[in-house]
Known about the structure:
Blueprint: H1 7-19, H2 27-35, E1 56-57, E2 63-64, H3 67-77, E3 84-88, H4 94-100, E4 105-110, H5 113-125, E5 131-135, E6 149-154, H6 163-166, E7 169-180, E8 185-193, E9 196-204
Parallel strand pairs: 3-4, 3-6, 4-5, 6-7
Antiparallel strand pairs: 1-2, 7-8, 8-9
Helix pairs in contact: 1-2
Amino acid sequence: MPGSTDYARARINMVENQLRPNRIEDRTLIEAMLDVPRERFVPKALAGVAYADEDLRLPDGRYLIEPLVLARLIQSARVGHEDVVLVLGCATGYAAAVLARLAATVILLVPDEASATRVEPLLDELGADNVVVVAGGDPSAGHPDQAPFDVILLTGSLDAVPSALLEQVGEGGRLVAVVANERVGRGVLFTRLHGVIGQRTLFDAQIPRLAGVTREAEFAF
Length: 221
């Protein structure tokens, strides 16, 4: 890992050593991950390991998931420049900042007002003015007031995706998540075509559970 001030080099190393060897090929996504300063989304004590290929546990018990899994999920969602994206489980705002460079509008659901107060100024500073931060709410319920969405991204794993979230996927829309039990996890793409939700397993992955969701809220699709 480079010195504490050489974050630009750390971003290049992340792309060249973690993303490209694992078939992350979307040029716009790569440029976004080279551009967004991941170290700004973690406490200063963790800035030196912000680009490590592991999930970072934050002081509040939440996580910033590893770059490769995030990139795989976003690439699989095929985010377009006219898309409206809902992001769930990313209390830091990092995933929203990356998606802000790919989509028309990003709605970021954070756990509380304190999180919103912390995240909004940083997103503004980084030019992510197309991100709308919504404080509070149950992540398993999504954000029905603004549904349907072109893309829904879950940055934490679930045993199964709640039916309330699948219902908020618009026609032609995509939901990407890691569906996992205690032994195995897999990235899964859900797509609505002609009103019917289909799913496709994409890759193996293990990330921490989506914070704030009880198992009772999950639905075995």
